[in-house]
Fold each of these.
Amino acid sequence: MDEAALCGWLRRATGDEALRITALTRLSGGAIQQNWALDVETAEGARRWVLRTDAPAVLAVSLPRAAEFALLRAAREAGVTVAEPIFLCEDMGVIGRPFFVMGRVEGIAAAHRVVKQAAPHGDEVVAALGRELARIHRIRPPRADLTFLGDPPADAARAMIAAMRARLDEAGTPRPVLEWGLRALERTAPPPVAPVLCHHDFRTGNVMIDGARVAAVLDWEFAAWGDPHADLGWFCAKCWRFGAHAREAGGIGAREAFYAGYESEAGTRIDRARMPWWELMATIRWAVIAADQAARHLSGQERSLELALTGHIVPELELDVLAMTEAL
Amino acid sequence: MLEKPDGADLLATARDVVLNELLPALPPEKAMAARMVAAAIALALRERAAVVPAMPDLAALAAEIRAGAHDPGTPTHAATATLLRDHARARAAVSAPKALGATG
């Protein structure tokens, strides 16, 4: 990271010629993006920011930083609890990659810690998360500031089936169990609902919690127009409970507490009959992503023990897929 | 005849060193990496001992399933379900043996 170039850019962006960087340290986490804690001294005092940029190898399916910045703005306007988006830099000449600067939020995001520490007030936390998700889903197409998302799919469920099959074909490894699940989803696809903004990675691990409070909804790079049940299913799917299977809402709290929070904010009732379909889809999607992460390691694109081990989650997910397909 | 101890013994011994000697001495931010090393060694050991069942052409099977050839109501549905379960269980026995207890 070229600190001098970054400092110069920040001086121009803020109009503060005396701005100084006092600390710049890489934060943990983020297989796709890199986050850096960025402390600066400005004319108005000290500021604690986060600089977010791409990891060396970027997943083709994730949105670029400028898009993520626009999504953060839209979410903040909609009342979603997110870090404040401050500056966007698309000039490759500054640190070699596009980046944006956002406010630093304090809290815990690491999934296993959240599952453990939120347990005493788990229902309160998941109700708050339900309300956050309902606010995200209030963002509806068309939106002039979100044109990079393209047109909403006519049928989000069938579009997701097609997308998963395309990714399996591209990866080239035959996965008959995932095909089995996708075929069952195809036979039982629910009729489409009006499209909303889906976060598409709204789960334990991607939300920052501070006590019983939601400090920030993180990781917007998979956001797209879609079916709101996709996000609800992703959050509740067994594969995202981090071992706390009895707490069906993200391993944190009760499913009905999460639904109640969502419904209170959305003003509509969740169609519970649709949830098994979307939870099976969530499990298949995570298996496809996990296999792709291992492929990044195998291809040499990014040699990493974490990515390598992620691939070994797939067989367990396949057992879930078979059980869920049978129960569909 | 190769010299003993063999690879499996060495891997198991190395895993004990990682967990019992290195992990307690590491700074907290490196604990995850050490646990991943231990997990990778354990997985490699299970893989050495694994019995992989014979499977038909997986690419052909995947294509048939997608086309609906083994849907409920077809003569091959039940046998395909059994085959897929065996396929997933054999791989989970190496990748995630704890999952076998949970799903039966």
Note: The interface with chain B takes residues 28, 165, 168, 174-177, 179-180, 182-183, 187, 305-306, 308-309, 312-316, 318-320, 322-323, 326 of chain A (CB under 8 Å).
Amino acid sequence: MMKHHTLSRREFLQSGAAATAGLAVGFHLPTSQAQVAKSASMAGSAEINAWIHITPDNRVILKFARSEMGQGASTALPMLIAEELECDWSKVELSEAMYSEHIKRNRLYVTTATGGSRGTRDSQSYLRTAGATARVMLIEAAAKQWGVAAGECSAANSMITHAASGRSATFGSVAVAASQLKAPEKVALKEPKQWKLLGTAPPRVDIPDKVIGKPMYGIDVVRPNMVHAAIAQCPVFRGKLKSIDATSLAAVKKMKGVSDVLEMGEYVAVIGNNWWRCHQGIKALKLEWDVGANGNVSSASIKKYLQDGASKPAGVAKTVGDFDTVYAAAPIIHEAEYYAPYLDHAPLEPMNCTAEVKDGMVTIWVPTQSAEGSAAAAARAAGVAPDKVEVFRQQLGGGFGRRGGFQDFTRQAVELAMKVGKPVKLLWSREEDIQHGHYRPATVARVQGALDKDGKLVALMGRVAVQSILERVRPEALKKTPQGTLDPQGTVSFDDSAYAIANLRAEHFYATTHVPVGFWRAVAHAQNPVFRECFLDEIAAKAKRDPYAFRREMLMGTDDTSRRERGILDAVAKAADWSKPLPINQFRGIALQDSYGSHAASVVEIEKRADGKLKIKRVIIAVDPGHVAHADAARAQIEGCVIYGLTAALYGEITIKDGRVEQSNFNDYRMMKIGETPEVVAVLAPSGGFWGGMGEPPMAPLAPALLNAIFAATGVMHRSLPLSREGVTFA
Amino acid sequence: MAVCEINGRRVDFTALGVEGEMPLLWALRDELDLKGTKYGCGIAQCGACTVHVDGEAVRSCAFPVAACGGKKIVTIEGLATSVNGAASKLTRIQAAWVKHQVPQCGYCQSGMIMAAEKLLRDKPKPTDADIDAAMSNICRCSTYVRVRAAIHDVAKSA
């Protein structure tokens, strides 16, 4: 059978994929399978610096150190280098920056982590500098050869030219000489107005392979002698396996293709020669779990606990003026309590990792948002030093924060590879993926505010009851206060608001439950903006104020933040024609929220149908990220955030019963589809002078803008999500 | 028994030792090494595993090998050849996907493209309602806006 298998595989490679793959010329993104060939093709190249290798035949090879999860980083980040390098963009090749090289050479690539909308904004300075430095060195090498002043030479399209003498040289012809020069300590970077490549939208380098089904994701990895693994984890978090029914165990061990059943503490694994066979084995096992003390926890008990936490003084993150005194004496006050549920990331590619442990070395092939995070988890699991790990980053079938800080799948794959003694590809079922997430935390917020006699907001208090994510990954960021511990992420939107509010207090009730929480796209900025921005509409309505004007008058400061927040609010209002009335039965809401270094605002337009259903007609999101690296990838992030955010607002909830997650697949964890997609207007309004993120900021103002639109249409502010549970139905 | 044609090649699943209950998805992925067809849910909800069986768009995670006998099956790897012959250049849909820069993470796109191909064969000029009905695939990155634009673009030039 093995022989047939091999023959079939070769036949198929000859037929379809290999033939069409040849169409993707020019840019090639390395995959692990292509790694050997890629390394070989770099032979003879000169390393100008960590990011730039140039071959004698003038091929420019740029290193890519972050993760590609669809956001376009593998195009945008090399563009930052190429802009300053003055190379021929159409001939640039990419090479994966290897984790081992990164560690061996003192964190050569700064970081491999890809999260927090940081890819472009955190690396733009050193990537542009690397490009400029290399250009200066290449010019210097050519000028030396020609005996002319470097200042008389220029670089463009991978060529250096001395205009006065008409001489020119390729980058490749001087690359070796340039690599031996001392790098200049200071280089001048271009002014944004001089950019030729940045801010444009060249075709993304990862797309050609994605339309022909090229194997490039973690789930596609194949290694010699590899076995598959499917697992079942204790359905109640923190529980562990008690026993496997002996009859079912014996039967599963005899199942076709199953080679082993492994008891791993908090999970059970079936090992075999085909993932589906392993998965059948898992389903046939009768498992008894020791669920520990959390078997009675429910969503209702957690919500009650959070509500109690939000109803009494908690850790004070920020205080300005004297909220209590002003609130007590104000002519108009308002109070509201909001709730947001747990949410799972549910990237379409379930969690997976392939691991091999051999001769004290651990090798992993993993779709990860952090090669360093994966390596650390692998090293811990195998009991080796981090420099004994190699990581081949695969394309991610979605990340959204799930594949970063928490590397449970990597740990398990390494544990299994050590037990089995062969390469193991671990793949979670969709059910495992949804029931063993690191969820956006359920949150209760109590908000109080006061208006003066002119209808101006003079006092605001936001108390947010929510679990800490940082306690598991960065406990040093937690703060001790007289009222208790707080996590600075807990009170975002309240403690960092640009609105000029004379009396303000932000508090965090530091909640703990057994449900694991993690960094879901936009993190606290996914739910906290609802609590602030919906409250603003509620209290503005009490004074019959226009929501746009009400916000704008609090943003009249002359500082950069006020100016930019006002600017993006104006931009979205202009794009939405806010000053003009909508047709009959149409309504709109507006919201504003800065996050991840960018400023974003949204207007959502809805229609109230005769049957009571609502139709989301149009979503406008405007973002000021300072500068834009790749314009079309930035627009795609806005489009993506619209559906990711609307799916959550309309349908998204992970509920707990008997300590475990009730949802299990897309039949009960509903996703929006194409027919529900509204018109999306993506407004990029870069104002210059800073670099902000793009992957998450568009999410932040979306949900409150939608809820504010429904408030305008119905007079009801739905303070609890998702809307489906509130009885709101959509056409 | 389960002898079928996959991307123009004869495949005898019985001879390969593949049991009839195995979903076609896993026979493609783990037995034939055709990795372009993706696993997303296993219960025919997401469409990432969409292939063509005798010209119909089928969710291969819920289509057993036993049902493949005598069928002509096309996966994303064989799509270009099945449409364009031996030259196997990109199909007009794949080309439109590149032109409109549709994929983000790309994981759902094999299924999206297979579903779009079937839609446009049935309805060369689909309405928005036709697209809504035929394209029930889940995309978590949300490429829906561009999927629609690319399909209309192909229809326009048909």
Note: Chain A has three domains: 26-210, 218-292+351-427, 300-342+439-726.
